[in-house]
Records
---
Amino acid sequence: MNRIMRTLLGVTATAGIVALAVPVLGTAANASPTSPADINSTSHAHDLRQAQPFLFNYTFNGHLKIAGGNFTIDRRVFLVVKYDTGRTAFSKWEIAHPHPVTPGGAVYVETTIAAPCAGSNNGYARAYDEATRTWSPRLPVSICQRID
């Protein structure tokens, strides 16, 4: 019995050493790029890209709420809502946090803009991920003011 166990353990240990040695003996193709110039279309550069940030909107507490995902977790995101003319209606810095439903770092910002709003979209929202220096695509929104 001991002889069988020693034989099995010896074979297993030898197979483990061979398996560990194979990557070391492989080509340099497995090596990480050392500079941005080393990354080309044949490398795994597409695996390193972060998904593009996105935004969506909804009404909450009588206000327009802007939310989005795929931002850098625990980093600053600048949210801005502008009229189509370029005039800013609302802006705020927010920290992106993990969220159980929204992928990547998520932001949920309640604006001071009244909602729901009758009429067509007369503005847009965008968010800037400070860590990646990436803007989200424009999200068309309706901007209105309450008349009380």
---
Amino acid sequence: MKAFKTNLTTQKVLALLNRFLDIRMGVLGAISMGLLVYYINSDHGILPALIAASKQAVYTLFFGALFVKMAENVAVQFEDRALAILCGGLTPSLLTSVLTYVLHAIKGTPEPFYSTIPTMVLGTMSFSLWAFLKHRSTYQAKQ
């Protein structure tokens, strides 16, 4: 009986995490963005590139997962598709671009601006696409 209660607690924790984070997209983003930032900083040596890539990967794992869920949640707030995509794509993109730059600038990444460009470009595209898909699936289901 005790294992059953623990399992319910685990399910509740996972449900709560799923409400605010998209872990699958966080992991995918962490791997891809970490590799990109490593490549961008690789001219400065293996260790600085690994440190920059690790910071980016850890940041993207958590904040990328959070911002993907934010894009979904914002997109379904507007019935107008263009407004939903604009707000659902740009809000998390602006937040993550600023936070990524601050992370790299404060922590001594050799190329902080260039390390932020993939976040700005890929983040805007992916958050907008994610918002579009979530909006379409939500409002097609209601019709």
---
Amino acid sequence: MSVKFKKDYIAYLAIGIFFFILTTELVIAVWLPVHLRSENVWALQVARQDMIDQFDSLRNGFSRISKTSQLEGEANIVTKCLDSMAIYLRTYQAALNAGQIAEIRSNLDDFQAVLDRLQKDKPYGHQNRIDPSDFLKKLSAEGMKPVSPPESDK
């Protein structure tokens, strides 16, 4: 003979708690991946927007570079690169993945370093003036007739 199970409120509570836990686990098993996927989408959107903001600030920064001869030339080169990137980003920005965004951000960081240097009026190279007088003296000492240097247009 088997023992008859006495149904009381403790048994009903245990069964209720069992089904509550089972339902909660199922909800979490479905909800958590969906939530994490949406978080990744938002993280990608935030990264994309940060990239665009940095890109816009760089283009504005290079347009404000003082128009001295050597600085202007360097700024023009970078501005042309940024213009090409702008065309690419307008066309493909929605299709960029996280790796591509990180690579573009790395390039933009390099451009930011160039902008910081140019804003301090430090060109990449130096323009040296050539003084032909020593060479002309050496030529005249060797008996060759020196050619006079051209007159500078001032």
---
Amino acid sequence: MRKPEDEYLEKAGQLSEEETERLLARMRSKLTRRLENRKMSVQEAVAIQLEIEDEELQEWRARMAEIRKESKKKST
């Protein structure tokens, strides 16, 4: 399992309790198990989840841009 980047650790530390709970609820099972086994802190787990979600968002944006590009080509 990877270590969170400092940028995301900082972001995780600035989250409210409610925002932290929401991120914990969306965590993947592997991360959840590590947290339960105390192999990482809550802040580290939340930071990794933030990283994962940012990566997924970037991938989604790239796919949407490609879909829009192809859609424009077809309509032209």
